[in-house]
Amino acid sequence: MVHAHDFYTALLAVPAARLAGTRAIVGRLDLAHWLNVPQRVALAAATRSAHHVVANAEAIKRAIVETERLPAERVSVVHNGIDLARFDSDLGGPLAGPLPPLEGRTVIVHVANMTHPVKAQEVLFEALRALRARRPEVLLLLAGDGPRRAGLEELAAAMGLAGAVCFLGRRSDVPAILARGDIGVLCSSAEGLSNAIIEGMAASLPMVVTDAGGNGELVRDEENGFVVPIGSSTMLASRLEMLARARPLRTKMGQAGRAFVEHELRLERLLERHEALYRKVLSKG
User: Is the pTM of this model over 0.90?
Assistant: First the structure.
């Protein structure tokens, strides 16, 4: 059996597997928002040619079934997993680089690349500007890098956020940074199943996320965080403020998020679900 996990592998591996008489599975891990139209057509063709498809979110399965006309029974969902033992070790580990002074601050952590506009840091800055008028102690840490960084730094300065936003760049110590945070946030306009959200929940942070892709499959609104409409800086600011002013609520939601990860997203569960899927596909050969 061949399991192709990304765009380029799928284009090569599925035809090769078919020629060799081997069963092929295509993994679909995002909404293909970063592909151009010809690439999306090619990926859809490779996906249809596979014996089975595994998505990492129900939102991705729905998109495949609805837009690529693939029968629902040919698409399974296996959520991402996290190695909690390793993550917890890193969570309690040292920082690999400096952080600004955090004492007396309510720390919001945003982990995302600065390559794709879908990460929508601009919306987060709008929310932060509104939030600071009522909660001046809030500090936003941005972990990630990319070609959009310079423009985002200029925007933050122009919006008067220079003292409230810290660009950390690409960091190898994200768990340790999360351990020093109070709230996690992701405001993307498109997502698959976000590892940034999973790691934030594993760090016991309440998460405020947009209703994009599989975000709502991880964050249950008002239970382990808040889910807000895409592009709504007003709702984002409102939910961040609710958490900033209420430590007990942050603790309650953070604990609920951690429990969800422990029960549903352990690496062992990922392996078990994939093994069951492989046996199912092979049994049809």
Answer: yes
